[in-house]
Each structure stands twice: as C-alpha cells, then as structure tokens.
Amino acid sequence: MALQETAPTEEPIAFPFPPPSSLYEPSPEYAELRDRRPVTQVTLPDGKTAWLVTGHAEARQVMIDPRFSRKAASGPDTPKLGLAAADDSILGMDPPEHTRLRRLVASAFTARRVEELRPRVAKLVDELLDRVETLPRPVDLVENFSLPLPVQVICELLGVPATDRHVFHAWSDAVMNDWRADPAKSKEAIEELSRYFARLIAAKRAEPADDLMTALIAARDRDDKLSEHELVQLGLGLLIAGHETTANQINMFLLTLLRYPDELARLRTTPDDIPRAVEELMRFVQLGQGGGGLLRVTLEEVELGGVRLPAGAAVLPALLAANRDPRAFDQPDRLDLSRADNPHLGFGAGVHHCLGAQLARMELQEALRGLLRRLPGVRVTVPDSELRFKSGMTLRSLEALPVTW
Amino acid sequence: MWRVRVDGACIGSGSCVGVAPGHFALGSDNRSRPLSDEIEPDEAILDAVASCPVEAITIEDADTGEPVEP
Ligand code: HEM
Ligand code: SF4
C-alpha cells in the first residue's frame, strides 16, 4: 500500500477521500491513517492544508483543549469546509462569549429537562406512526416520520409554529448545504431565516409564551445577556441544528439494523437495551463523509499525538474515524448493540459538545422503540444503490426512504 | 474554600474541562474529576456547573458542607 512509504515530510494526502463503497463503513483511508499517523497533514479542495485527526484520544483532545479554537477557524483565511454557516453561530465562538450564550440555553437541554419531554415525544411518535399505517405503501419514512419528528419537537420547545415548517424547511436545507456548492444560495437562506426569526421575536415580544424563545427574549430585554443579532442567530441555530442530524440518524439507524438481523432480533426481545443500542448506533453510523467534527485552529504551538503543530494550524477532528479506533473500542468494526463501555464522539466533546445531545438521544430512543413495536416487519423497498442523498449537503441526508412492512 | 464533586451521572462530555480549564480532567474511565479537592471560589466552576448536560457537578462550602451550587 502506497501509504506505507509515505514519510511525514512527503506530499500531503488529498481530503475529503473518495466516497466509500458501502453506506456502513468509513472510507478505508481513515483506518490506514489512524493506524500509522493519527495526526496527518492533508490537502483540502481549496489547496490549503489541514491536519486530519483520526485517533480517538487525539480527536477528543482537539475538541476539549482550549488551545484549539473554533473562533479562529471562523476567520476569512481559514479553509471553509462544509458548514460555513456555523461560523456566525454559537459554534463559531470561544469562551467566554461562548459560555455566556451557552449558559442561557443549557438548562433547557439537560437530561432532567429532556426526561420531562419524553412522554410528549413518545406520543408524537405514536401519532406519526398512526398516520404512516394509513398511507399507501411503500411509505416515505423521511417525509412522514424521521423529519417531522425532530422538527415538531424543536418547534414546540422553542415556540416556533410547526405549521411554518414548509416556510423554513427549504431555507434550512440551503443553510445546511455545503458552502462551496452554492455560496449565494446559502447566504440568502440565512438572511431569509434571520428575517423570519426577527418577525417571530417581534410577535413573541408582543405576546410572551411559555417557551424557550420567550425566555431568551427576556434574557435580552430584561437582563441584557445577549445582543439582538445573537438572539436571532441563536434562535435559528437551535431551530435548524437538530433537523437533518436527527432525521439522518433515524434513517441510518434503521438501515443499519436491517443489515444486522441477529442484533435487531435481539433488540426486539430486550427493549430495555434501546438506550445502549442508540449509543452504539451513534458510534457506528457516520453523519457525513467529511468526518463529523468542525475545523479548529491552534492558538499556539501544540503537541498532539506526538506531532508538533504550529500556531495557526487548521485541524480537523474526524469523529467517524475516532469512533472506530481500536485503542478506544474493543472490536470497533463490529456492531454490538449491548456494548457497555462506549465513549463515542458522535456528539463531539468539550465546550461545543452537542447542546441537543440529551434531546436527540431521547428522540432516537423513542423513534426506535416506536418503529420496533409498531412496524415489526419493516423493510426498505429499494436496494442501497438506489437510495438518493441530497446533493451538496455537509451531512449525509437521504432524499427519501421508502419502506413497507 | 469550595469543595467540587462530580457524581456518577457524568457522561464524559468534556464540557466542564473546556469551560473551566485547569479545574477538571477526563479520566480513562471517561468520567470527569476535579483536579483538586478544595479550591478558591471561581466563576469558571459556576460556568461548568451550568454547562453540564447531566447536572453532575456540585459545589459545597468546604467548611460548612452547605451547597453553593446548584
Ligand atoms: C442525532 C442527532 C445529532 C447529532 C449527531 C449532533 C451532532 C453534533 C456535533 C458532533 C456537534 C459538535 C460539532 C463540533 O464541535 O465540531 C453538535 C453541536 C451542536 N448541536 Fe447537535 N447533533 C444532533 C442533534 C441536535 C439537536 C436535536 C439539537 C437541538 C437543539 C442540536 C443542537 C446543537 C447545537 C446548538 C450545537 C452547537 C453547540 C455549541 O457550539 O456550544 N443538535 N451537534
Ligand atoms: S460537563 Fe458534566 S457530563 Fe460533561 S464531563 Fe463534565 S461532569 Fe461529566
């Protein structure tokens, strides 16, 4: 294999890698790099270089160690990989600005608060599946289950009318688009969404309600904890951050389980294992080709995995490779739904650790529970080769998932 | 002085380590622990308490044992 001869001083490797042949395994380049050089220089499509981090310990350090900055990665000179829209959001900040905003919303997303929402989410799952059962088969699971569920949940939490879904969904798609695909369109979508949120905020100012947007408006108007621009950006960030991610995970969890019928059969008989199964599926399923974590930039010289990175170096934590690191997981390429010790990085780590992680976990658990119980014989009606993904997305996102049962 | 504790609910998100550098570390068991038993009161620890997704961090007054946060 060519990599074997590659000394660290040689030509950097081109990244992103060619897409893998299977939906279920990362591109083989990730494992080769992780075994030899878990911190490696790569060349990005714009010709700039970055350090790709494929080891678990190393990727976790990049996400936790404050010397790796998201704010510095949001500057104009750093490579723009995928989700550039994140730059103007909480995901583009460092402490202390980041801490100030995150503290305003953190309490709404704790495990305890999320548990209070579980009965409502279980009911939503049931209602969606009631409707699915009446539709002519095959039924598109994306349109009728995996997307409406997270959209409805976050809308209720924020106090955004879910009936506006058709209004903001196209914008949300465009924002989540890979910036390089169509920068003008992404920018326009952010502006449209910002205007939508400004209107929503005005309406809530006039008529406060018991929801998170009203609480954030009070934090601005009463306590001056954030600027008007931050209020708008935070609201729309919360609205769109969890759509495609959660929907994509529901789809991929189902596809993955259907490929491992023994594991699926065991899970059916032991529904108490669902939380554990969700963690294992979070570890196993890849969010996207790019690796999963956003780019960071070093604020000073840092040693990472035995490599000395200069100040100002662009660093990309490849979460999907970290999640398959044999130094962190026993038999990492095996799907083991009862895996007990599972420090996966599917929700990132450190200050930007997914704000919605506990919420997403609970939604995924209830979605899985509902699908297993209500549609026991569920199967996908097309082969993997005919599954279509939305083009230009930073996340891997299915256009449709036709199922029958 | 404050006494800081991380309880068994910790899921190893690393948020506290990032929010209050120098005060917490993640162990090989994927659990966070305070780096010293007793510390001078510090706003950063309050930030860590507020940022923990599972509310695993508590602070008490080292002398009286009275809870400071949450
Ligand atoms: C299964 C579904 C989800 C996955 C896989 C996921 C994954 C992630 C990851 C990996 C990050 C960190 C990115 C980085 O640091 O480079 C993140 C951040 C974030 N996620 Fe999620 N997420 C999911 C669902 C949600 C939901 C439902 C919400 C709703 C509120 C949400 C809101 C956020 C926010 C606001 C951030 C930025 C946090 C910060 O910068 O402090 N996510 N997510
Ligand atoms: S923030 Fe909470 S869950 Fe995360 S590592 Fe610290 S104590 Fe554990």
Automatic annotation (TrEMBL), chain A:
What is the recorded name of this protein?
Answer: Cytochrome P450
| Lineage start | Bacteria, Bacillati, Actinomycetota, Actinomycetes, Micromonosporales
Which residues fall in a coiled-coil region? none
* Family statement: Belongs to the cytochrome P450 family.
Q: Name one GO molecular function term.
A: monooxygenase activity
Name a biological process GO annotation: antibiotic biosynthetic process
Q: Which CDD domains match?
A: Cyp158A-like (cd11031)
Q: Which UniProt keywords apply?
A: Heme, Iron, Metal-binding, Monooxygenase, Oxidoreductase
Q: Where is this region: Disordered?
A: 1-29
**SUPFAM superfamilies xref list:** Cytochrome P450 (SSF48264)
Has the keyword Iron-sulfur been applied to this entry? no
Looking at the Swiss-Prot or TrEMBL record, what is one Pfam family this protein matches? p450
Q: Which domain of life is it from?
A: Bacteria
Which InterPro entries did the record assign?
Answer: Cyt_P450, Cyt_P450_B, Cyt_P450_CS, Cyt_P450_sf
From TrEMBL, chain B:
Q: Which Gene3D superfamilies match?
A: 3.30.70.20
Q: What is the protein named? A: Ferredoxin
